[in-house]
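hey so i finally got around to running the thing on that chain from the lab meeting. sorry it took forever, my laptop kept dying and i had to restart like 3 times. anyway pasting the input first so we r on the same page abt which one it is
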Amino acid sequence: MATMKKWINAARPRTLPLALSGIIMGCGLAWYMDAIQWDISLLAIITATLIQIFSNFANDYGDNQHGTDNNSRLGPVRAMQSGEISKKEMKTGMFIIGGLSFIFGTLLVYIGTWYHSKFAFLCFMSLGIISLLAAYFYTVGKRSYGYIGLGDLFVIVFFGLLPVTGVFYLNTNFFLYSVFLPAISIGFFSAGVLNLNNMRDIENDRNSGKITISVRLGQQKSLIYHIFLILSGWVTVLIYVVKQHTSICQWLFVLVLPFFINDLRKIRKIKNNIELDPFLKRLVLSTLAFTLLFCAGFIIST
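ok and heres what got predicted. didnt touch it at all, straight out
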């Protein structure tokens, strides 16, 4: 029987800051608009955490199902790959975490929409169900979209666009088109993390039939694609700040720019793909730091 430590490892704690970055960005922008609701923000954090854990369990299950998690893979050994968690246990874990995600997500959407728009309630419930399905079918099943090069697109949507704009709306009860700019930034940075992961495992993925964008592009073009994602993320957020500028404090997030640039410079020089692994964690933490400083700067500016 799997121990709690094994389940924690299977949850992949190092991925959670990335999942929370979009939520924090949405909450920070709502706070900047003086419309933050703490109960909704807390529920959004809990729901996002649960969905990310569910996604990690499903990813573990799906890659094991496809045979992608094998001895040739360069990343950390997965729970099912090592035998620490059985197939039956993982399915049970997915059911429990998926159920909790649905319960907390329903409560979040109910509090955030029910009393002012039944239509918004239905829309957000639909998006919540789609999020769970997307988390599951990323690698599970014969037609999993992560195996045909669509993972990056879904990451941009479900780590950037949906959490930022969705949480902003649940807090404020209105949309602003300008909010899509920082949402796109978070989405691009998140896709950058996935791209690094796929660049690291490009050979094993190719041999296992997992056709990621990195497999399609090859190593050198994947590096160019990665640089494009990171720089585009910065361009979109800079456009937003220029449009919203009222205080020098709003530029506080620029303090993390040297970390992004320095990592890009180091990644360009890497010859052995296993050396890419530490940069996944660095980009996750840099994205979280970027988000926190961005939100802090805008809140201070008010």
